[in-house]
Amino acid sequence: MRETQNNQNENKKEADQLNLNLEKEIEHMDRTSGEEFQGYEPVSEKPKKEKKPKKPKKKKTPKQIVKRVLIVLAVIILVPVAAFFTLRALGKNFLFSGNVNMKNAVDGADVQNNGDLVIYKGHKYRYNENITSVLVMGVDREKVNSDEEYLKEHGAGQADTMFVAALDTSSNKLSLISIPRDTMADIKMYDEKGKYTGTRNTQLCLAYAYGDGKELSCTNAVDAVSNVLYGIPIDSYVSINLSAISILNDAVGGVNVQVIGDLTSVDPDLKEGANVTLLGDQAETYVRTREHEPLDANLERMRRQQQYITAFIQKGLQETRNDIMLPVDLLNLISDNAVTNVSVPKLTYLATEALGVSFSSDDIYSIDCDIKEGDSGYAEYYPDETKLFELVLDVFYTRID
């Protein structure tokens, strides 16, 4: 028992000595570091950054708000305006791309520089480069179709109505030359596959038939009409099918006419001399109906067509002054029933120029022709070459002496 007590005393002494040594070590660490021991910091924790207080947003003044609104409005307005004038500039470039190439002038005419200058009956005439021309055609087909099998069975159709619209952009003068469908001309012939097969002297309306019912038909008709007009350039074309007539007519609110001839056999309302606002299919009936006899039966129909197109243009110009985008809307309405190279840029330019145009029946010109019956029994119209040449000088040239 005494031995156990001695062991306990020795263990106590060793513990006291260890505590004393530990206190000395801690005291030594305090003196060398100058800081009290704070224990060990956890390795995973990082000191937190103090959040800076947010500065209050400054309220915009009324002047700043107005300035910002004006900037937004300027962008909204200027971008469409810039696009409009870009389209207009492009359209102008596209419309004046052709050059005169006068051919087969009448006797006594001195043609210089391909027709840029003409000396005739002692006077000098300069080709007016401010004029752009569009060939407008009405085709006797219900729809546009260039399918080869369809063309074999039905053909591309014929250009029953042909007008050359000449717009002088320097004077805002619009002139329309009505060309008889049966005018004899040299035209290029193509088969159903579009292969050129030769040239034939025949009725002008068939130039459209020798084509694909689309672009080839139109360009073939343009070439033929240009040749009839002594090589005057025709920059653009529009061909519309039967279905498009009533669409265009109703889009401008109908067209008012005083009926020429008695058409009661096809429509009881179309009595000779009656004032009628043509609506729907009436418009097509009025401009297409003709007798098959005699040979000059087409002349009365041409008078109705000239009357109708005059009234339609006047109505269209009036509506365009209220809505400058109307021509574009009309083109979109008949897109499935028309073939044209009048693009949106071209139409934009023409629409802005048309705002200053005045137009009447005095601005429509007819071609004097000698009418004969051909070997096939169909009418053949032979233009008076001298009068036609003088008409070309009057519309497309400027006298410079």
From TrEMBL:
**Pfam families referenced in this protein's UniProt entry, alphabetically:** LytR_cpsA_psr
Q: Name all Cell envelope-related transcriptional attenuator domain ranges.
A: 159-315
| Membrane-crossing segments per the record | 65-87
Q: Which domain of life is it from?
A: Bacteria
List the keywords (alphabetical): Membrane, Transmembrane, Transmembrane helix
Give the start-end ranges of region Disordered: 1-60
UniProt-listed InterPro entries: LytR/CpsA/Psr_CW_biosynth, LytR_CpsA_psr
Compositional bias of type Basic and acidic residues: which residue ranges?
10-34
On whether Coiled coil is a keyword of this UniProt record, the answer is no
- Comp. bias regions, Basic residues: 49-60
UniProt cross-references to NCBIfam families, sorted A to Z: lytR_cpsA_psr
- Family indicated by similarity: Belongs to the LytR/CpsA/Psr (LCP) family.
PANTHER family registered for this protein in UniProt: POLYISOPRENYL-TEICHOIC ACID--PEPTIDOGLYCAN TEICHOIC ACID TRANSFERASE TAGU
Protein name listed in UniProt: LCP family protein
Q: Which organism is it from?
A: Candidatus Anaerostipes avistercoris
